[in-house]
Design brief:
By secondary structure, the protein is mostly helical. About 60% of the residues lie in helices and about 5% in strands. A hairpin with a 4-residue loop joins β1 and β2. The radius of gyration is 23 Å and the shape is globular.
């Protein structure tokens, strides 16, 4: 963050934006990301001696060009520019500026990147864990099983409360992006793992004399488990299963979708399970399916050259 008197008038606008975003209930993760992005915009504005936020589109494009010159990858540039567009739109909507100079601001071209996923064999190796003997091992088994059984985002999984478990229907009530609620089923084996974890969870709270918690997944202090902790647990599980490294928890979501598609599930049904607002987002998995099909073809066709 830029310090000094020069930044004060510009910083007041950013601070007011953050306060309104907080009042709207944006997630802590989104708030942190916005702060980091707007710190970069403020730093640029102070160095370039902007007199305020009432600037020209050309001036704002100078900020976008600087991001590219600094060597940031296209995805990072796109995220920062998205935050800048949101900020300038807010300035205009709240009549702090007379025109929105960022309305025509475009993101850099993104390289097409298919999501990473595990093969069915790798998924089985990851989930083939010894029977749980205590709270940590039961929690890890349940985390992995539910991620692969339901295709939830990690943030959705750790956000689950006990009241979101519809165990009679083997269904999870999930609060997804945009606070949209959806129901996601899970299979019998996942239900058995979940039931075992709930038993260990109750015993853990009683043994540690911790107060009841609404959160499904707890840390060692009885608080809600964080996405960061889940990523660390998954890394350890991948190493123990000798599955290739550099696979994020999100890869289990991708694996869930890819394996269902490869086994014939309708794409729109997968869209509903994943909570995608647009079918085009889900259609990325058709490319993954076609890649697997091409590899199988090359191995099987008599005239294919290996």
């Amino acid at each position: 963050m830029v310090a000094g008197n020069a930044a004060a008038p510009l910083g007041e606008g950013i601070q007011a934006f953050h306060l309104e975003q907080q009042a709207r209930g944006v997630s802590p993760h989104t708030a942190r990301a916005q702060r980091g992005d707007l710190d970069k915009l403020l730093d640029h504005a102070v160095r370039c001696q902007w007199n305020g936020w009432e600037v020209s589109p050309r001036t704002v494009r100078g900020f976008a060009l600087e991001l590219g010159d600094r060597g940031l990858d296209p995805a990072s540039q796109a995220r920062i520019l998205s935050t800048a567009r949101t900020f300038f739109r807010w300035l205009w909507e709240t009549r702090r500026i007379s025109k929105n100079p960022a309305s025509g601001l475009r993101n850099p071209k993104q390289p097409k990147r298919l999501p990473a996923f595990l093969t069915e064999g790798e998924s089985q190796a990851l989930l083939d864990l010894p029977p749980a003997v205590d709270f940590p091992s039961a929690r890890l088994t349940c985390l992995l099983e539910l991620l692969y059984a339901s295709g939830l985002r990690v943030s959705e999984l750790v956000g689950l409360d006990l009241q979101d478990l519809l165990t009679g229907e083997r269904t999870l009530r999930v609060l997804g992006k945009g606070r949209k609620e959806r129901l996601v089923p899970y299979h019998l084996q996942a239900g058995e793992v979940l039931g075992a974890y709930l038993g260990f969870r109750s015993a853990f709270l009683a043994q540690k004399e911790l107060p009841p918690s609404p959160a499904l997944f707890l840390n060692q202090r009885g608080g809600r488990l964080t996405p960061t902790s889940v990523r660390a647990l998954l890394r350890s599980a991948l190493e123990a299963a000798a599955v290739r490294s550099r696979v994020s928890p999100h890869a289990l979501r991708h694996s869930f979708a890819t394996h269902l598609l490869n086994r014939g599930m309708d794409l729109r049904a997968i869209q509903e399970l994943l909570g995608h607002a647009s079918l085009s987002t889900t259609q990325r998995y058709t490319h993954l399916g076609l890649e697997e099909l091409a590899r199988t073809y090359e191995k099987a066709h008599p005239r294919a050259k290996g």
